[in-house]
Amino acid sequence: EGEFSGYRKMATADWARQADPLAALGDLIARHCEDRQVAQVMLGLPGILSRDRSRVLSLPFIPALDAQPVAALLADLLALPVRMDKDVNHLLWWDLQQLPALPQVAVGLYLGTGMGNSLWLN
After folding, report:
1. How far is CA 96 from the centre of its chain?
2. SS3 labels along 69-102
3. Its pTM surpasses 0.85
């Protein structure tokens, strides 16, 4: 319904610096889903993803996930569909949802550890 529920912020390092970051992320998500009815999981990642958004090609700050089919591996761990996209696409979508109407064209530029960008063409 377009509403956030049970929002919780956690430092990436809490799971990314574990011996098995993917398993740690899976455990974190599974614990969050325990008392909720979850249809699927959507990840926004600050790296280079495959064209079909199923594999992480390069994730500079979490290199253990490089060249991994993260969506499929997490889906197996969680028994839920898992999708991935660039984090900046999530940020731009959130920003657009704050407007009274969606524009025909929008550009999002997001400064973090690098410069991320996203383009919206309605």
Report:
1. 17
2. CHHHHHHHHHCCCEEEEEHHHHHHHHHHHCCCCC
3. no
